[in-house]
Amino acid sequence: MSRSLATERPDSLDSLFALAQSMAGGDAIRDGIVRDIYQTSRTICREAVRYEDPKKLESTYRLDKIVTSPIWGFPIMLAILGVVFWITIAGANVPSGMLADMFGVIEGYLTAAFQAVHAPDWLHGLLVLGLFRGTAWVVSVMLPPMAIFFPIFALLENFGYLPRVAFNMDRLFKKAGGHGKQALTMSMGFGCNAAAIISTRIIESPRERMIAILTNNFVPCNGRWPTLILLASLFVAAGVASQYHTLVTALIVMGMVLIGIVVTLSVSWLLSKTALRGVPTHYTLELPPYRKPQMLKTVLLASKDKSLSVLTRAVVVAAPAGVITWILGNVTVGGDSILNHLASVFQPFAHALGLDGYILMAFLLGLPANEIVLPILLMGYLSSGAMVDTDGMDNIKDIFLAHGWTWLTALNMMLFSLLHYPCGTTLINIYKETKSVKWTVLSALIPLSIAVAVTFVIAQTARALGWVA
């Protein structure tokens, strides 16, 4: 089955389409040409093709009238997204706790082994408190959500729904000056922004591909889910009745995702009107028929190709980062650790953003991977020089409150996490794809500027209205 959005046009016809657009009703002329081509093709197809099961085809058409409807398409899409988040959050809590307990037991055995061989304290701290705890945090926090999130998305793709999402989003990206395929690359960003940058190769237009690259960071990757979910659960949804706590947390996280999508569209529109001006191109989107998902095969492949690959990358990055963070937390200068000195330097600027110096320090040191931002932050707060004990998650909110956190701190950290610069791996991929230092630097500065501006405005407005001290 085919549903036409538009069609990619050969380079030789660029001048014809540009002339058509410059005339009165240019967009209408262009869309009319595409529509006529599709209608002619459909007429020929009806005369030449016979279907073995026409009822199945008709049922696909009837379902598409609903899920791609201008009225119902977006509400259905948001409802499905909310259900996915709810299942992910509700299903990940128990296995995350079990993994944390398991790593706590292993850490106890490792500590006993180091003591048995009379290893120096610095070696135990470096390898166990830095390397092992940092890696344990990443695995226990990331693996359960990924093991749920990626297979569900794979099942939706196998069912044939994700192409319908691209169909719906194309309307918005077209108005924003982007390409409809940007919806697909944006969806991949929910798993890993680094992989999504590579996926922008499906966009043929260099201008529109650059827009997709520069804006892909505004959807939260898997490394940012733990921060968003944890803070939404501990602070924003804290006063909700227990039976609704997971639902409200999922709605808050979905709200953050919607903010990211709005920013993506807004920045795409701004770039298309300034630095990346041009005429949007169009394409024909082939909507596959709905089919029964191959449950076991799809889940296994998604777990292997996506969950484990992303987790492996995170562990490879988090392991050395844990060691570096332990060193910074234990090397003292002038009677205080380097971590505390860094926090003091960032404090004035961070306060203006509704944050604190430790938070900005954590984001800076967490450049290699978003997964390690929370461990670094907790290490700084505890001033222990070690990653926080993974079996002590229940007291995280008490740690935050003891360091002056309010609802504003939690909200602005969620927004800063959502909007700030890409991780190191994503930046490397951007450079590989663009071969340009300028665009790589801009891909970091644009989201960072937006994150600073948004948090600054919210913090200053809340203080001016007396909502926080």
Features:
single chain; mainly alpha; disordered N terminus
Architecture overview:
The protein has 469 residues and is mainly α. The protein has 19 helices and 2 strands. The protein has helices at residues 14-22, 26-48, 54-67, 73-116, 121-159, 162-175, 182-189, 193-199, 206-215, 225-236, 245-273, 295-330, 338-352, 357-365, 373-382, 396-402, 407-419, 424-434, 437-464; strands at 332-333, 336-337. The protein has a two-stranded antiparallel ribbon with strand order 1-2. Helix 7 packs antiparallel against helix 8 (193-199) and helix 12 (295-330) packs parallel to helix 15. The protein is globular, with a radius of gyration of 25 Å. The protein starts with 13 loop residues before the first helix and ends in a 5-residue tail after the last helix. Mean pLDDT is 82; it is low at 1-14.
Task: Give the helices and strands, then pairings.
Blueprint: H1 14-22, H2 26-48, H3 54-67, H4 73-116, H5 121-159, H6 162-175, H7 182-189, H8 193-199, H9 206-215, H10 225-236, H11 245-273, H12 295-330, E1 332-333, E2 336-337, H13 338-352, H14 357-365, H15 373-382, H16 396-402, H17 407-419, H18 424-434, H19 437-464
Antiparallel strand pairs: 1-2
